[in-house]
Structure formats: C-alpha cells, structure tokens
Amino acid sequence: MVVGGLIGELIDIDKGLNSLGDKIEEKLNKGKVDVSKEKVSISQGFVSASLLFCVGAMAVVGALNSGLFGNNDTLFAKSALDGVSSFLFSLTMGIGVLLSAVAVFLYEGIIACGAFLLKGVLSTAVITEMNAVGSLLILALGINMILKANIKVANLLPAMFVPIIFGIIGMI
After folding, report:
1. How many domains does the chain have?
2. Which domain holds residue 101?
3. In this structure, is residue 91 part of a structural domain?
4. Residue 36 lies in a domain
5. Closest-CA residue to 45 (of 31, 60, 29)
C-alpha cells in the first residue's frame, strides 16, 4: 500500500481523474443555465463511481479470471451488481456515474489483457495480495463517502499492481 500510494501521489492520479471529470462536466454543461440551488458535480459522480466500481475484489478477480482462465462468470455477476448500483448512485450523483462505465471498461480490460500476457507471473499469493489491496481501497472509499473524509483513493490505485512487481522480483 505504501509503495503504491507513493507512486500515486507522485503522478497524482486523483488530480488527473478530477481534471478529466471537470472537462467532461464543462463540455456537457456548455450553454446550460443552472437553475437549481444544489448542483451535483458530474466530475464527482464520475470519480466516485469509477473508483467504486474499479477497486473492488470482484473487479480484480473477475478480470484476472477472464484473462487467466477465460472464465467471465465473476465479471457477469459484477456487471449485474454494478448495473443496479449505478442506477441508484445516478439518482444522487447524476450522469457522471454513467460516464464511469468507460473507465471501468478500460480498467478491467487492461487487467484481463495483462493477466493473459502475465500468466506465468501471477501466482495465487500475488492474486491474494491484489485482492487484499482492493479490499482496503474499498474501505477507504467507504470512509470517504460516509464520513466525508478526503482520502485520495485514486492515488492509491497503483498499490493494486505492486504485488505483481514483487511477484516478478521473487521469481528472479
């Protein structure tokens, strides 16, 4: 977690995601007048939903199973759960939740393709460590949502891939 967090802070993934969300929000709101007193940020919905749907154990395990074994069952179950969740989240967070589908597709696709290419490196221990990191990231995201904390969960995302690096080093 520490190594991944340091990497994430150095490249500031959180700032990049928020910037992307702000640009999308600016494009979608161009020429619109805000008549409501409370405006839900498209950027906030995009970032929160992207993180929520990407950092879970099902996202990682499902994508790994797809890449390693060609088994998509976990991804199918996750997509059903995410569909229901995204509908509910979109009621409060707006269209940014829908836009997070692109980020989820890219994230899970990269993991699945990477798993396919790194079949020999991904041991059970490495996968277990990746799941543990994913669970901690979900906890941090929950703390942000419930307690209104300001943990930059996006900056911790590289921690998901640090076990792969240690797995490769361990094989040498």
Report:
1. 1
2. 2-10+41-171
3. yes
4. no
5. 29
Q: How far is CA 90 from CA 27, 103, 108, 137, 148, in A?
A: 19, 16, 21, 21, 19
Q: How would you write the pLDDT of the chain (172 residues) with one tens digit per residue?
A: 899 999 999 999 889 888 887 887 787 777 565 545 445 578 888 888 988 898 777 888 889 889 988 999 989 999 999 999 999 999 888 888 999 999 999 999 999 999 899 887 788 888 888 878 878 888 888 898 788 888 888 899 899 889 988 888 888 7
Q: Is residue 26, in this structure, part of any structural domain at all? A: no
Of 141, 161, 162, the residue nearest 151 (C-alpha):
141
- Decide if 25 is inside a domain: no
pTM (two decimals) = 0.71
Q: Which residue has the tokens 């994230």?
A: 107
